[in-house]
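re: ur msg from earlier - yeah i can do the alpha-D-ribofuranose complex, just paste it... oh wait u already did. ok heres what im feeding in:
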Amino acid sequence: MSATIRDVAKLAGVSVASVSRVLNSKGYISTETKDKVEEAIKLLKYEPNQVARSLTVKKTKTIALFVPDITNPFFSTLAKGVEEQANSKGFTLILCNYDESGGEKNSHIDLIKQKYVDGIIFAAGKLNPRDAVKIKHSKIPLVALDRIPDMETECVIFVDNYKGAKMAVEHLLDMGCKKIGHIYGPQEISTARDRLLAYEDVMRDSPLYSPSLMTSGDFTIESGIEATKTLLERHPDLDGIFAGNDMMAIGALKALHRRGIKVPEQIAVCGFDGISLTEVTNPELTTVAQPTYEIGKLAAESLIKFISDLYFNEKIIKLDASLVIRESTKKIGVKL
Ligand code: RIB
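and the outut:
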């Protein structure tokens, strides 16, 4: 049986009202009382009842955003869209970098519950089972973004990754590429799976198709460098690379430059995401641009509407990405 606020008051030797003031950081609380209450909360592992709390006290007007890698500009643009929309509605954003294999390190979930956030936007794809149970029991509404999570959510917003990747590969073929390699992201992530599937569906009928034209990365620049080295060792006559995200495509540009291989003349390169870095690489990178800022804005809009009206207009929102053609695929002599 979990501890109640009365158990905390009894153990701390104070009134329930004092415990409530400590929990809500409201009204005058002596340091001695605050310390005794916090000690009792820790000893009893007391967790305020979310449902009761959200019914009895004013909303905190706070939203938590979970992302898997804040160092990737895709997620910082996503966060910008969420934050600007949340702020425009008077909400504060708590940003959490979440690694689902993070185990105890991930105290975010407990922090989120203790902070009584009104809603969660989850862009990290996978919640470890322990955290998934905590979120479910907390009754905090959750909107999933970008990566389809393996848990029940009230609303999910993402792009058509299959359609976007198909556009990328067909564009490379239109540019005259024959032997196109693919650097795919981690296959436990839905976005990476859909992009790999599209690549295989487009290339399968090509006479040059081979499983050795596909190699894995982890959505980082370094993995793009390593994957490109692997593809070149397997296929020195490669003439195109589709990378499952822009960071790996930037790694590919780096690896090709180190070998004196000309892009796009010898090998054309296309990425996926549309992060702003693609405008400053040399050559500038062709990519499949996601409406990333808009996805973040839409997620915040949907969640805040749910917090006030308790329903979502749409439970599944699938958006289109768009091909942005730049120097890295403009094969000389091929009309665009
Ligand atoms: O660059 C990070 C990748 O992970 C993006 O393609 C995004 O779709 C996410 O799934």
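cool cool. The chain has a mean pLDDT of 89. ping me if u need the other ligands too
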